[in-house]
From TrEMBL:
Domain of life assignment: Bacteria
All copies of domain Radical SAM core, residue ranges: 6-237
InterPro entries according to UniProt: AKG_HExxH, Aldolase_TIM, rSAM, rSAM_sf, rSAM_SPASM_FxsB, Sulphatase_maturase_rSAM
Keywords per UniProt: Iron, Iron-sulfur, Metal-binding, S-adenosyl-L-methionine
Keyword Repressor: no
GO molecular function: iron-sulfur cluster binding; metal ion binding; oxidoreductase activity
Name of the protein in its database record: Radical SAM protein
Any Pfam family: Radical_SAM
Organism field: Streptomyces rubellomurinus (strain ATCC 31215)
Keyword S-adenosyl-L-methionine: yes
SUPFAM superfamilies the record matches: Radical SAM enzymes
Length: 801
């Protein structure tokens, strides 16, 4: 049955200093209702830093988080000084468990930013966001020193530092608080001139008690009008930088997640740690009333799970159910999400508190509809299980997939759809970079016209999409190098490609390796290398002038029975898209072990799972070796943005490898289906118990697990049939596993069917899975096998609270 548990917290604002060297009159910390800053320590002490890092680390380990984001904040965090900032960064990195990445940032007014700070941030991997409201006139309206002096020259100096080649990778973007009395065109042009990777345009914090200013003569929705003017310029300039507000509207209109807490229905996963170690809710609540963000909790007495259960945190995690009646009936609610939680506050007028639409309600409605009317080419997703995007699948394909299978034609159709999606995502990510035509993109476009097979071969590589997915999710730390590497690989594959002269492209090199997707990597010094595709190979000219013409570590492939080959991907830097740590370059002995195990596993799949093997052969192109898991535990993974790949730590036996391949490729297939169709109501935010897990999961998790275990059930069913009547430990284990997994999977199918959240096509999939299980449920088993299965079941039985 569904239940609710706290949503894990993955984003943290760590207050490093509680004072500021500017006196901005629109600051929510010092100028709004909350006055708690007056009694807090100026700087965060070492004991608090250490305990904060410990809390975040234990939370990440408990919830198996693959990444957390920490923003060093204030006040003005640079006032904390370089030594304290270093201690914070080092403590946070040391506390995180293996496999959990740290996205560490600092938000500053830029006044104190210096070359020495930039050197520190380059060493520690800290990206820098700068607050800037536009040109000097716009910025001086609010962002001044206490004596009235302008801060604009110092901020421009800070941005200039971040734009230097040595520090450009630290430049996270600009934060601009909107003032509708500032000219939106001038503000946009001033920010665009600074070539930021991203700009956040922020509505000034306001409530119904303290509403935003609406100057006379500017209508009732001046903030929407201001933003729509900027949006039109941004689109006309081909999206020169990322803007989370605009991109979130585009994303939520087609059923995807928002990139910002101020829009969409995704649960908030943010916590604040103040300089005294107290846990607070979002800083924006300081604008509501004195003490609004307080939780009564701190890092010494409470865990982050305790904090996630706080009613105030939970209120920002309840999605549609947590909105006012007015919001729930609004046609744009799935994009608007009721606006920022703090902006809903009203102290009287019937029900007080936050059970109201945003004070910017009219502006948000006009903005969302206006963006739709400014020519967005992104379609609104259809409901009821209709395709989210044009589908290459016919009813026969869907029926096969619903039953858990999928022949070669069906899986190849999925592969074509995934290639089209990869192309679209790459284009969207490149457009959002604001780099115009660009050398790498221009080369890909030219090769696509002259040598499309070479481009398709590279873009079909499972990790080609990983770069675009991360960029579109707001992670700009991956830079633009991976796209240049894709273009270089396509150039190498195409040779001259009918383009006349040999084609070439510059590729940034970090870590001493130039990676060419689908081909391998070349050892070259860091810097910018130029790759030239030749008719009979390639040439790499490194930054130091040296030249190379061969791969030092080629991508290795294993040829299996029937001529099928799979790549053992152990060099692609983006292969870390899985939930587990990837292995390094396989030594010769390990490569031989993998080769033998894969060949034996493929034979077993053809014999024991013929209904799954054909689809595997058509769609599985890549196996990424993982590091071994804990003793006795098999580790495997499929990544949603890596179609065609599965990741596995090589198990001790070939039969187990066969099982893991079939299991993970089920996830690959279903993920591809979910990219095309809605099988369930994406607004359903309940959590569901799967029979095989102690923790409840979102509906998609239950659906994915059930679909994967169709193959697991059939695997053990066929092995049980092979042992029919035979004694021995292997036979008894097969029977017990078969009894367990057919029961588990059947229960999960019925839980899905009874959820009330499946679309018509989702119900069709539930029917198909039930149809596949029915004959296996009818297979008679010895009573001992059922007893063994029950013992395992009781030991692992989840507690349904």
């Amino acid at each position: 049955m569904p239940t609710r548990i706290p949503v894990p917290l993955t984003q943290f604002v760590l207050k490093m200093h509680s004072r500021c060297d500017l006196a901005c009159d629109h600051c929510y910390v010092y100028e709004h209702a909350d006055s708690s800053w007056r009694t807090r320590p100026r700087a965060t002490g070492d004991e608090i830093l250490a305990k904060t890092a410990e809390r975040i680390g234990e939370h990440a380990a408990a919830h198996r988080l693959t990444a957390v984001r920490v923003v060093l904040h204030g006040g003005e965090p640079l006032l904390a000084g370089p030594d304290r900032l270093r201690r914070a960064a080092e403590a946070l990195r040391a506390a995180l468990p293996p496999g959990c990445a740290l996205d560490l940032r600092i938000h500053t007014n830029g006044v104190l930013l210096s070359r020495s700070f930039c050197e520190l941030f380059a060493e520690l991997g800290v990206r820098v966001g700068i607050s800037l409201d536009g040109d000097r006139a716009a910025n001086d309206r609010h962002r001044r020193f206490a004596d009235g002096r302008s801060s604009h020259p110092q901020v421009l100096r800070a941005v200039a530092l971040l734009r230097e080649p040595s520090y450009q990778h630290l430049y996270a973007g600009l934060l601009c608080t909107i003032d509708v009395e500032n000219d939106p065109v001038a503000v946009y042009r001033a920010l665009a001139e600074l070539q930021p990777p991203a700009v956040d345009f922020l509505l000034p914090h306001a409530t119904w008690d303290d509403p935003p200013k609406r100057p006379s003569g500017r209508g009732t929705t001046p903030y929407a009008d201001w933003l729509l003017t900027v949006h039109e310029l941004w689109e006309a300039d081909r999206r020169p930088f990322a803007v989370r507000t605009f991109e979130s509207v585009h994303r939520t209109r087609r059923g995807l997640s928002s990139l910002t807490e101020s829009l969409g229905l995704e649960p908030s996963d943010l916590a604040v740690i103040e300089t005294d170690g107290s846990f607070e809710q979002a800083d924006s609540l300081k604008t509501a009333y004195d003490g609004a963000p307080a939780t009564g909790m701190d890092v010494f007495r409470h865990s982050l799970d305790d904090l996630a259960r706080h009613p105030g945190i939970a209120a920002r995690q309840s999605g549609l159910a947590g909105l006012s009646d007015t919001c729930r009936s609004c046609p744009v609610v799935r994009s608007c999400g009721g606006g920022l939680y703090a902006h809903r506050y009203r102290s009287h007028h019937g029900s007080g508190g936050f059970d109201h639409p945003s004070v910017y309600c009219g502006d948000l409605m006009k903005l969302i509809n206006g963006i739709a009317g400014q020519g967005s080419s992104v379609p609104v997703p259809a409901q009821g299980g209709e395709p989210v995007r044009p589908s290459p699948l016919d009813p026969a394909h869907l029926d096969q997939l619903a039953r858990g299978y999928g022949d070669g034609d069906t899986v190849r159709a999925l592969s074509r759809a995934q290639l089209a999606l990869t192309r679209a995502m790459l284009a969207a990510a490149w457009d959002a970079s604001g780099r115009g035509r660009g050398e790498a993109w221009a080369l890909l476009a030219a090769l696509d016209a002259e040598a499309p097979a070479a481009v398709d071969a590279v873009l079909a590589h499972p990790y080609a999409r990983a770069w675009a997915a991360r960029r579109l999710a707001g992670d700009l730390s991956v830079g633009l190098g991976p796209l240049a590497a894709l273009a270089a690989a396509a150039a190498v594959r195409a040779g001259r490609a009918g383009l006349g002269e040999a084609v070439q492209v510059a590729v940034p090199v970090r870590g001493g390796w130039l990676h060419l997707p689908t081909l391998g990597r070349v050892a070259v010094p860091d810097g910018e290398a130029v790759v030239t595709g030749l008719a009979d190979g390639f040439r790499v000219r490194a930054a130091d002038g040296s030249e190379r013409g061969e791969l030092d570590e080629p991508l290795r492939r294993v040829r299996l029975a029937g001529g099928w080959t799979v790549a053992l991907e152990d060099v692609d830097p983006l292969r870390d898209s899985h939930d587990h740590a990837v292995a390094g370059r396989l030594p010769a002995g390990e490569l031989l072990d993998w080769t033998g195990a894969l060949r034996e596993a493929w034979e077993l799949l053809g014999r024991d799972l013929p209904g799954y093997a054909e689809g595997l052969r058509a769609g599985l192109t890549t196996i990424t070796p993982l590091r071994p898991g804990p003793a006795g535990r098999d580790v495997s993974s499929a990544a949603r943005q890596a179609y065609g790949a599965v990741a596995i730590a090589r198990p001790s036996t070939a039969p187990t490898l066969a099982l893991l391949l079939a299991h993970e490729f089920q996830h690959v297939k279903l993920g591809a289906v979910l990219d095309l169709y809605d099988l369930y109501d994406r607004a359903d935010d309940r959590l569901y118990f799967a029979p095989w897990r102690p923790d409840p999961r979102p509906l998609e998790g239950l659906l994915q697990g059930t679909y994967a275990h169709l193959a697991v059930t059939e695997y053990w069913g066929t092995r049980t049939a092979a042992y029919d009547g035979l004694p021995g430990d292997a036979a008894e284990r097969a029977r017990a596993q078969f009894a367990l997994w057919r029961r588990y999977t059947a229960e999960a199918v019925e839980r899905l069917a009874g959820s009330g959240a499946l679309t018509a096509l989702g119900a069709r999939f539930a029917d198909g899975m039930r149809e596949s299980l029915t004959p296996w449920l009818a297979v008679p088993l010895p009573a001992a096998a059922e007893r063994d299965a029950e013992r395992i079941r009781v030991r692992l039985q989840p507690v349904e609270a």
